[in-house]
Amino acid sequence: MVGGVWAFGYWEPRLLPVRTIEVQGELHHHSSELLRETLGQRLQGGFLTADLNDLKRAAEGLPWVGGASIRRVWPDRLQVRVLEHRPVARWKGDGLVTAEGVVFRPRGQVPAGLPLLEGDEARARELVERYLKWRDALMLAGQLIDTLGVDARGAWHLDLVSNTRVELGTNDIERRLMRFIAAVPQLEAAGRARVVDLRYSNGFAVKWAGSAVAAAPEPVPPKTAPPTHTKARKKGATANTATKQTRTPTQAQRPAAAKERPRPRTVAAPTKARAQTPPPPRHPPPAPVRASGRALTQAVPGRP
C-alpha cells in the first residue's frame, strides 16, 4: 500500500503534468506572466495532485489581487480567474482601500488623484461607506472631498478640495453635514471659508481665509510747479523755495563783488506841497479906536 502511494506520487507528475496555466480576468496592475510565474513556483505535483488551495493563496498574496479561483481543465491545464482590487481611496498615505473596506498596501507608487481616508483600520468599512455617501451629496453642492477622517475620540472632519476644513464632531454627523451643504451658497457668496465648525446645536462658526485684495493703484502726487531757485538779495546766496531752506552767507563767505556793490536805494516819488495856513496869533490884536475929531495917541507900555 505504501509502495503504491509512493509510485503514484512519483509517476503522476511525469505522466499527467500541468502544462498550461491560463489566467482569466482583467489585470491592470499585474501582468499575466507575473501571475503564471508565481503559480508555477508554488505548483507541486501533477494535474491530479496539485494543491489548488495553496495556489489560490499564492495568487491572492499578490498586492493587487482581491480574489482568485482555480480549476482543473482536462487534460493538462489549470484555469485561474483573478479579480483585482478596485481602490476608491488612499489609506493613510501608503495604502489603498476598496469599496468593501479592504485595506491593502501595494508595492510601488500609490495612484494619484484619489481622496485620503484616515482612521483606525477597524473602521475602514464605515469610513468608505460614509465617503461614498457624502461624496455624492457634496458633489451636488459643487464640493469635492480631499480628506475624510475620524480620530480616536470619534470626531469626524472633512477637508475639501477648495481648502476648506469642515469640523463635524462626534454627534449628529449626518444632520450637521446637511446643514453645511445648505449653507454652501451663502458661504461662497460671502468669501472663502478656511474652517467651518459645525459642532453647535443650531449653527456653525466660520473662520475666513485671508482673501487676496486687489492691488490698489498707487496715489498720484498732485502736480506742482517745478522747484524754482530764487536769488537772494546778495549775489551768491541761492535758495531753493521747494525743498531747501534759504541760507544767508556770512560776511566771510560773501564774494568781494557783493561787498563793493552798493545797495540800490529807493526814492519816493515827489508829492505836491500843500498850502500852509499861518498859525493863529498868540495874543489877540488891539481893539480899534475911533477918532472923535482929535488925534488920540495910544499909550504904548514902557514909553512916556
UniProtKB/TrEMBL annotation:
GO terms for cellular component: cell division site; plasma membrane. Residues 277-288 have a biased composition (Pro residues). Keywords: Cell cycle, Cell division, Cell inner membrane, Cell membrane, Membrane, Transmembrane, Transmembrane helix. Belongs to the FtsQ/DivIB family. FtsQ subfamily. The keyword Hydrolase does not apply. One of its GO terms (biological process) is FtsZ-dependent cytokinesis. It comes from Candidatus Thiodictyon syntrophicum. Pfam families: FtsQ_DivIB_C (PF03799), POTRA_1 (PF08478). Residues 238-251 have a biased composition (Polar residues). Signal peptide: none annotated. The keyword Cell inner membrane applies. It is a single-pass type II membrane protein. Residues 16-85 form the POTRA domain. This is Cell division protein FtsQ. Residues 212-304 are annotated as: Disordered. The gene is ftsQ. Its main location: membrane. HAMAP family: FtsQ_subfam (MF_00911). Essential cell division protein. May link together the upstream cell division proteins, which are predominantly cytoplasmic, with the downstream cell division proteins, which are predominantly periplasmic. May control correct divisome assembly. It is found in: Cell inner membrane; Membrane. The lineage of its organism: Bacteria, Pseudomonadati, Pseudomonadota, Gammaproteobacteria, Chromatiales. Part of a complex composed of FtsB, FtsL and FtsQ.
